[in-house]
Queue: 2 jobs
Job 1
Amino acid sequence: MSETRLTPEIDLDGISPDEAFAILGNEIRLDIIRVLLSAGATHQYDDVSDTAETIPFSELRSRVDIDDNGQFNYHLSQLTPHFVRGTDDGYRLSGAGKQIARTVLAVSGAETVDFTTDLQQSCPLCDAPMKAAYEDQWLRISCTRCDGLFGDKAPDESVFWSNYPAAGLADRTPEEAFETGFYRCMLDISSLMRDVCRECAGTISASVSVCERHDPGARQQCAACGTLFPVWAELQCDTCGYAKRLPIEAFTLGLTPVIGFLDDHGMDILAPAFDDVVDLFRHRVETTVREEPLRVSVTIEGDSSALSVSLDDDMNVVDLDQHPSE
Ligand SMILES: [Zn+2]
Ligand SMILES: [Zn+2]
Ligand SMILES: [Zn+2]
């Protein structure tokens, strides 16, 4: 394809993660990346344009504000070609350089962003007030009275918790940040179930743990495992270690047939109302476990039909069955 942007004239031998950390572990080099981004010296639209702005060497040097020419040249050469590209016209960020710059933007806040605040939304389980807390790039929604949906497996009575970039707090109320965090979480789940890490596009490994003596009882919290859910799965990126550990039911919600089934029942599961998902988990989802080989079957009830998804211990879908409701 003619639009494919390849730069075969550049030696693009990969660099190891250790090398990348070493290259970036320097204030002047990060400043070069910052200056190139703020000068727009990069592909503006990564996918639709093959033209990129550059800035001349002399301008780059004066904006980075370093007197020692030799030092500047040395640090610039360390960034090239993996993070910065040099052309006849000047310098620009590579795709990797732009991603580094974006990550810095995502995790930066204008000032200290950690907070705890009351939410207007009340707990879907017990109707008590809920709180939103933001700390260490994590958004945590917790109930002031009950243990939340996940029982002992969630820290600090959390109803919901997820990594959330500080930049996503700007121009949003705590309620909107909760909604946005939940949306991002559903996209993460969907991507993980397709064997793709949303952080780095790496492949995913899965493991499953089953409560052997599961009995949630009337309190909806099993004495043996401390939660309502009998099977938990952990999906983790093989490359960067990004992971989610959730009830297996939550992971099934990211599968295309389940997304379609719920859409037919008026529920947009990729951008759902939180209360609706809690209601779904508590009243419309049933999970059964069969051993040797392990098969976990999650059945989601609709109005007149139900959808059953059967998964193995690697979280592969081994069976899918839509049938009339009982
Ligand atoms: Zn509660
Ligand atoms: Zn249990
Ligand atoms: Zn990853």
Job 2
Amino acid sequence: MSRLAMVTGGAQGIGAEICRRLVADGMRVVVTDIQGDAAQVVAGQLPGAGHDSAQMDVSSETSVESAFARVEDKHGPVSVLVCNAGILILHDGQRLPIAQTSLDEWERTHAINTRGTFLCARAFLRSRTITPVPHGRIITFSSCAAQLGGYRSSAAYISSKSAILGFTKALARESAGFGITVNGIAPGLIDTAMLRMSMPPGQEAAATVAIPLGRLGETSDIAAVVSFLVSEQAAYVTGTMNDVNGGYRMQ
Ligand SMILES: NC(=O)c1ccc[n+]([C@@H]2O[C@H](COP(=O)([O-])OP(=O)(O)OC[C@H]3O[C@@H](n4cnc5c(N)ncnc54)[C@H](O)[C@@H]3O)[C@@H](O)[C@H]2O)c1
């Protein structure tokens, strides 16, 4: 039986492309998203058998616990968890200054981007301690906005994604004993709905001036790196944060 991958935020953008890539790599994929219907559409278009979808709100403990239990009851243990779901709240395409940021916006952003990653990783680890799997993998999502302080993103988003930089390392240390590797992705400017929300048509050329490779990233650029990190070949890579940004930020 092929390995089972669960992708959060898989209904569109980077998450949907990761689902397609992992299927091409030979995995069975469960597409999860708060948009259950859209996740079902993505899952229905995946080639081959054994794929599924689940409505799951990563910010809700109940939703994460019950979706995990339903998926594993039906399909067996998840081997690969991709914590891709995330939000960036903007107002007419603009970030609010910190002085104008509401507590609700701050909390909601952290609930999805940070708490969501914790809840999904915890459900995965609890389950894997009962039912271990070979080549267990977790992928987390930070952002180059967290590394740079961000130009288009809100302070709440930057803060929520900065937490992922540290959490990925803590998770990697704790997961290692179970044979599970944990690695993060820090995307640069990737051409999805999230980016387009903050970049009106016509601003692309100005944005790419600062990218040495001279273009926005494609969702496939991220999926290719995830594909390697969750593969059996990446067995000795853990606790890393992988810049996929066209050289936008070099360290
Ligand atoms: N696009 C970029 O330039 C960029 C840059 C840096 C980091 N990222 C990160 O990459 C990841 C994917 O981003 P994207 O550009 O594909 O965004 P997107 O907005 O296109 O897709 C995000 C997906 O997450 C889902 N989602 C939102 N809230 C959810 C919740 N509570 N529970 C479950 N699913 C939920 C949405 O329904 C959507 O399908 C995010 O974590 C994002 O922060 C993106």
